[in-house]
Design brief:
The radius of gyration is 22 Å and the shape is globular. The protein starts with a strand and ends with a helix. The chain is of the alpha/beta class and 431 residues long. The strands form 6 sheets. A 4-stranded mixed sheet has the order 22-23-1-24. Strands 2-15-17-16 form a 4-stranded mixed sheet. Helix 1 packs parallel to helix 6 and helix 7 packs parallel to helix 9. Helix content is 32%, strand content 28%. The structure holds uridine-diphosphate-2(N-acetylglucosaminyl) butyric acid.
Length: 431
């Protein structure tokens, strides 16, 4: 197991290149299952969730060839199985996209129930099930396996989502791409990765319109064939470096991004007294004055992203006055607050709201990441704290952030990854 050791207090300066979007990549890779021929996917982030999904497709019979570190050729023409029940699937949330992909292609899917970040509370899939059932699938769940069966193919229909769900929108769009007739997904999620998946499927021959609005219309096609596609930049990775620049002070150019995707984050940082300058495909974040308090509420896109909630809270812990952060997407996503308290943060949770009394400075402490974005928030806290922070549970972080330690080091952070054994030796030496 790896830990991160951070000696905090260095303002970040320099440029950071943002990788391909995790949540787009983990939808596009399963989508390749529906394509006859070779899909070349470029700009994949080098993260463990991507490696896990490529491994799952390989186990299912796909041919996978790495062209370079960020580009793979995936050929699923020979995949004949509808069974995806590997242990690895329970580690990642996005394994549920195999339901839509397999149902679309074969009319049957036997898929292990998804795992993924557990930031508190159950993560339901009732909207996925409701949609596939409306499209003619019979669905049962037994011993942790979801089995979905249709007669021949899924049938297009109109589906209204009772909650705006990214996962259900993506899964139903996948199923609908090869269904018979027209599917309309109403109250659809609008996140950039939904548009990216629609663009991927369309470039392989699908007929999807309206992605990025709350009504997506899919005309089912008989088959999709191979092609090239490049994944969009990661909105949340970019936002995380913007937050780190704000928390530590300094000046960071966040490169290779789509500034429009970051508007809700830029607005909040400006409210906090941070200078944010949007250029064509980069953003400059600079802080020269104390951070000001603000109020944040997470919402589906284009609202402030829930996946930035822990990171912005870590920044607000050091803002003057009282800030509030309200979680509007998940029932509970504040597990990390106990860890921030160990660093001297003053945060109370009231229902779905964190009430944050800013402190002058956080202090380094041994802490533990409980999920991916919680881990990112702890890194931000550690970078801006006085003294040494040791973060356990960083496997979560490496599931979704490419080379975080080296990217931060290039910006001047004093951060390194150590193994448990090195940590043990360090404790013995200091003891
Ligand atoms: N929900 C239901 N029923 C469903 C599906 C969702 O009630 O069938 C509820 C959830 O309980 C939640 C809300 O709807 O309250 C939104 O859930 P959504 O389905 O949008 O989340 P998801 O698809 O499981 C994706 C991201 C998450 C991100 C959310 C919200 C992936 C692989 N995961 O999850 O990302 O928090 O959308 O934007 O795309 C992360 O990257 O750290 C992460 C957790």
């Amino acid at each position: 197991m790896t830990k991160y050791v951070i000696n905090g207090g260095n303002p970040l300066y320099g440029e950071v290149e943002i990788s391909g979007a995790k949540n787009a990549a983990v939808a596009i890779i399963p989508a390749a299952l529906m394509v006859d021929g070779v899909c070349r996917i470029e700009n994949l982030p080098e993260i463990s969730d991507v490696k896990t999904l490529l491994g799952i497709l390989k186990e299912m019979g796909a041919k996978i060839r790495a062209v370079d570190k960020r580009t793979v050729d995936i050929d699923c023409t020979r995949v004949g199985t509808t069974l995806a029940t590997f242990d690895t699937m329970r580690r990642i949330r996005a394994s549920y996209y195999l339901i839509g992909a397999l149902l679309g292609r074969f009319g049957r899917a036997d898929v292990a129930m998804p795992g993924g970040c557990n930031f508190g509370g159950f993560r339901p899939i009732d909207q996925h099930i409701k949609g596939f059932t409306a499209m003619g699938a019979n669905i049962s769940i037994k011993n942790g396996i979801v089995t979905a069966v249709t007669g021949d193919t899924l049938r297009g229909t109109t589906i209204y989502l009772d909650v705006v769900s990214v996962g259900a929108t993506i899964n139903l769009m996948l199923g609908a791409a090869l269904a018979s007739g027209r599917t309309i997904i109403e109250n659809a999620a609008r996140e950039p990765h939904i548009v990216d998946l629609a663009n991927f499927l369309n470039s392989m021959g699908a007929d999807i319109r309206g992605a990025g609005t709350n009504e997506i219309r899919v005309r089912g096609v008989k088959r999709m064939t191979g092609g090239f596609y490049s994944v969009i930049p990661d909105q949340i990775e970019a936002g995380t470096y913007m937050a780190a620049a704000a928390a530590t002070g300094g000046r960071v150019v966040v490169k290779d991004i789509i500034p429009r995707h970051l508007e809700s984050i830029s607005v909040k940082l400006r409210e906090m007294g941070v200078t944010v300058v949007e250029l064509e495909d980069s953003i400059i974040v600079q802080r020269d004055a104390p951070l000001l308090r603000t109020h944040v509420k997470t919402m589906p896109y284009p609202g402030f992203p829930t996946d930035m909630q822990p990171q912005i809270s870590a920044v607000l812990c050091q803002a003057e006055g009282t800030s509030t952060v309200t979680e509007g997407v998940w029932d509970n996503r504040f597990k990390y607050v106990d860890e921030l308290s160990k660093m001297g943060a003053t945060v109370r949770i009231h229902g779905r709201t964190a009430i944050i009394e800013g402190v002058r400075a956080l202090s380094g402490a041994p802490i533990k990441a409980s999920d991916l974005r919680a881990g990112a928030a702890l890194v931000i806290a550690g970078l801006s704290a006085k003294g040494r922070t040791v973060i356990d549970g960083v496997d979560y972080i490496e599931r979704g952030y490419e080379k975080m330690v080296s990217k931060l080091s290039l910006l001047g952070a004093d951060i390194r990854a150590i193994s448990d054994r090195q940590d043990f030796l360090f404790i013995r030496k200091s003891g």
